[in-house]
Give the backbone structure.
Amino acid sequence: MFGNYLTVALRNIARHKLYSFINIAGLAMGLACMVFIALFIRDELSFDRWVPDSDNLYRLDVGTQLPGRPMDRFALAPFPLPVFMKDHLPEVAAETHLWPVRMTVQVGDRQFLDQIDEVDPNFFDVIKLPLTAGDPGEVLQKPESIVLSEALAKKYFGDTNAIGRQLVMNRSNCGKELVACPDAAVTLRVTGVMRDLPHNTQFRLDAIIPHTSPVDRITDRGKQAWFMFNGSGYVRLAPGTAPAAVTAKLNGVMDRMLDFSSDINVRKPASQVMQVTLVPFRDAHMITLDDGGDVPPGSWTTIYGLALVGALTLLAACFNFTNLATARAMMRAREIGLRKCVGASRRQVALQFLGESVLMAVVALVIAMAMVEILLPAYDSFLQRPISLNYVSDWPLLLVIVAIALAAGLVSGIYPALVLSGFRPVAALRSNQSGRAGSGRLRTVLVVLQFAVSIGLGIATLVVFAQIDFARNQKLGFRHDNTVIIDTGRRMTATARESFVAALRAYPGISGAGMSSDTPFSSFVNISSVKLPGQASTVTAEEMLFTPEFRDMYGMKLVAGRALSDRRADDVVDRSDPDDSVRNVLVNETAARTFGFGVQGALDRTIRMDRHAVRIVGVLADMHFKGARRAIQPTIYLNDKADANFVSVRLTGQDIPAAIAFIDRTWHSVSPSTAISRHFLDDSFEKLYQSDRKQGTLFGIFVSVAILIAALGLFGLAAFTVGRRTKEIGIRKVFGARTRDVAILLLWQFSIPVLIANLIAWPLAWYYLRGWLQGFASHIALSPLYFAAAGLAALLIAWLTVLSHALRVARANPVHALRTE
């Protein structure tokens, strides 16, 4: 019997080529999309699952609630916090800290600028990353020790054993002038080699030194400061400890033992100013925050969205099968009637048709896996991560994929099987018709759902790309083209930095250069407490140090008052000034309004900023300094060269490679012992929306697949429907109907489900996209045009799909349709 069923199924697939192609192609595309989405979701959820003994390990995320500011949340922690928790909470078994910085490493006569991670000496005891050489408990105990990854050890020392080898780095934290630091060059010895970490981890670790190292970049003040977020903090809880209980207990201890009024001039309980969250180490990648981490975080919204898209795309393919199978039921009425006449039961007939649908699903799965193998390299390249499918080690995932394919076949065939197996043999044999070739109402519902999925995805794609385009092209309030950012850090004295900038300005290919404590599109934020005249409470504002040339170079617009100048002594900040001195500053429009002054009213007003009084002499136009996602914050600008560690250089655009080469030569002439750290500002701007562009592209790909599947199904259904109405159309033409009338009649029949699909898709898309847009401080409006465009596109696709069938039957000679009557 099985052989007979298989033979009949293969004959039907071969005989009805169009029907078989539509079903198999639709299922194959749906399954391929599902596999790609499953591979991405599996990769996202695998982050840090491989790290041993990490069940009780947590990352410390900190939120700060300061007056006049929204809650700022960071995947970072102040240096004292993990130690404070270990000292005051017995539930905390261990703690450690990590801070990535870029440093110059000298190996022999070669210089490298690499990321160096500063950690507590117990780092490998707390976070058990794999070492290929060295004892985890000993490798960082000596201040001059360093642990390298396998890749970095090979880069520095080739294939020779790196253990015991030496490299040279510069000492830091020696005061304002590095020339006053004796023995600036420090020799470090490799004490351990770490296995190269896989891509699915929150870390990007290649070189690790202890915080006790003489080249440690965190100052003694930074190690005591509660509002300097120097890296990430981690704690290990005792087994069986509930994180919520630890957080509640920590809040009470912080309120009793900490007073932040001297830091930020806010008299509130410490737990209301600083809120600590314990994020499970294995879930850290999926916790999306504004700041922190070496690796871009994941997003549960993206995970759920892609899972829904994959399910809907596969479901659309299943709808095709169900639609076409029920529509074609009357064509197999005689076969079913004969089977029942010779003794076949309804159960046997149902099993036969279920078997056919499962066979088609299996064929579609084979084709889908072939598509995955062909397209997987391009998929990896697009996602910029190695995503593989190993048929041996990934057998659990393969079983799930096979199960989904079989389930898709069963879901697709269950309703047609029930309909077909219910034919009455007498009626079927008398007219070769079933009498009820499946529910036309059901077919309409399935078409509506197919197009609702396609339209919803289409709207999402249009809005995502429109928002990205808006963010990229909105007026930021400053220029960012042809700009190079150089991070001098602590690698150059203030005097040497000024000489460096002066030399750059003299080059013909450079139109301007300025210094600042922050740069556009960075995640750095420096916050100061502001006391307004006549008010007991304080507000907070962001603080930025810059030189007058910086404002000119970026084209920052002055809307009131005057600019700062180096020629006026009270325009230049000196940190050694007595507390009763008054220096001049600029503020942005948001600060002027937040302080209650207004733009013009802010001029010549004196406020207290931390411990010093400052006078507002000018107001700058608001700028989207951090991009469109972040709201513009009150900002105070001070003219201070001493701590302005970033140099911004604007190129003329003529012979950019020569200008870059000049910058590099000038750097090495001023600071020969350190490598230059520079990047183009436009690169930082592009990274702001990189993940959104990828999300939009993925939506675009999947919406194309969903529309293609829907169009394929509609094409097959149209072919059936037009064939079924041939005699009706012949009669209409005999009574005077024109070709145009017949074509419009058929087009309207298939337009109704698409119009109903719009009514379903529009509110659902609006609800989802409204929440997504709230993640941007500046965003587009959800214009009805996006919804109308997607709906009209779906309608046009439906018309184009049906048009060929409609015209063919409308132009046919009615005699051929009626000659058998």
Remarks:
- The two ends are 40 Å apart (CA to CA).
